Amino acid sequence: MHHKIRLNHYLSNAGISSRRKADRLIQSGAIEVNGKPVFKLGTVIHTDDIVKYHGSKIKSKNKIYILLNKPKGFITTTKDQFNRKTVMNLIPCLYDEYRIFPVGRLDSSTTGVLLLTNDGYIAEKLTHPKYHVKKIYHVSLNKKIKNEDLDQIKKEKIYLKEGKVKVCFVKNKKNAKNQIEIGLYIGWNRVIKRIFKRLNYKVIRLDRINFGGLSKKNLKIGNWCFLNKKEIENIITKS
Predict the structure, then answer these.
(1) How large is the C-alpha radius of gyration of the chain?
(2) Residue 27 in this model has a pLDDT that exceeds 70
(3) Distance from the Cα of residue 84 to its chain's centroid
């Protein structure tokens, strides 16, 4: 499959530099695409284009896709300046070789579905707001939720600083009135916790059970597995 991808993402995926440094390389004229120097930031190329850095052809690394059932206590980043545990500690054998990174963010206390990859195209498909990727969460609250509060969420009467909170659905879990299942497209920072805080509830456990069609697939907490080509194609098709 050949896809479009931003040139700076392509350079980062190939291990040439970070995206920020890739922009500087582009502006310096060090990068050629199909025999022509490229200077414009934001340039989009096809993955089968011939890209050269100082005259040498760049070979993109093999794409790796890992589905992780993230446990509590891990930061969703590749490195942490305070030396806290990151999700990369759970798969250290693959990070250095393939330069994989987590797609999107789950805060330290949130568990569940997380994708790690070195494919910038897939990462953008799953995180950019224009693609409306659905995320489904299992929420445990500190007390039973009132029907009128549940209705406020359903009828989109909750407003946060970014605007109106639009949900795909929200419902009680059977036989557990303090447990909620909620689906939404928005990816605002800590949005689930903020929704319920606005209604005077505290989230005591938050688990993402589905991300863009990816589920935990019976993975135990802290475990991971590789995704196959068909699963990745499904992500692209659905996004």
Answers:
(1) 20
(2) yes
(3) 20
